What we know:
alpha+beta, Creatine Amidinohydrolase, Chain A, domain 1, Creatine Amidinohydrolase, 2 domains, six-stranded mixed sheet, three-stranded antiparallel sheet, 16 strands, about 40% helix, about 15% strand
Amino acid sequence: MIKIPATEFARRRDQLMVRMGANSIAIIPAAREQIRSRDTHFPFRQDSDFWYLTGFPEPDAVAVLVPGRSHGAFVLFCRDRDPEMETWHGRRFGPEGAKARFGADDAFPIDDIDEILPGLIEGRDKIFYALGADAEFDNQVIGWVKRLRAKVRQGALPVGEMIDIRHILHEMRLFKSAAEIKIMRHVAKITAEAHKAAMQKTQPGRFEWEIEAEIKYRFALAGARFEAYSSIVAGGDNATILHYTENQDRLRKGDLLLVDAGAEYQGYAADITRTWPISGRFSRLQKRAYEWVLRAQQAAINEVRPGSDWSQPHQAAVEVLTEGMVDLGLLKGRVSTLVKKGAYRQYYMHKTGHWLGLDVHDVGDYQVDGQPRLLEPGMVMTV
Length: 383
């Protein structure tokens, strides 16, 4: 199994604390379990920011980073060991496991957070926290800060400003390490093999959900138990719905099948979209349209290099696609004029790519000072 090593998680925490500066604190909560219906839950998926810094897989946890703390900078609050609950719902690492397995300098039961965390916040000039991401936890954090500020006259040290941690943390996540890229290549390969298997299973009379099932099976067989997002398996004109996920119609002879599906492995997403003929062979018109899209993709890929800006791959694709639309009779006029007017948007209303990483639409700014961002080594994007 390919994994991010513990040393890399530690390095990320150290880098974040350097950017935070002295006399600061960062508070990063884990994801919560989400109810699916009554007393059943959706499969748990860890919060991407929390995972990026800890690799800790459980809900009901909070990571705290305190630069310069004498007993260690990385504090983790998590569920305590509980033999009865573990018999019903699975093993827990507990505070001792958090220290032994995940590099926490200190770890405490999550039930003790109200007693311990305010003391860590007290006197800190800056509190880094993603306010607005979790309303329930927001109330806890704001409550701690208010109580500390109310006690200043009684001798408590003042608490400083609250700063959104996402700006610096998401900038870090935008640049992938060698270990991350290795995992992302692996999950991309799993996804590509699943797409090829789906192609082989496609034939008229089958249902879209049968192709979806083949894709999920291939993901799981390769060790990627979950999709990075809900798969789109769209036959015929269902493919004109950008986020079609019903996947319930019968495949018809002569139609095309669009599949947009990506596996998730060790938290990292793949994202591949392909279109193929349900009957196994393109018609002449389908082939012409497919070849124009292929040329546009290649034109965009050619612009993905250090020094290009974020908009260049999209612009290259748009120019080729507009030329194709004229050739296919969808648009009339000079290509340059049509591009300038945005005439292609009737058929191509979205951008050509996006950042990819722990989230399928990964974090990171697309513009810097109002200008398209320059592409740099370590960034990963889709085309």
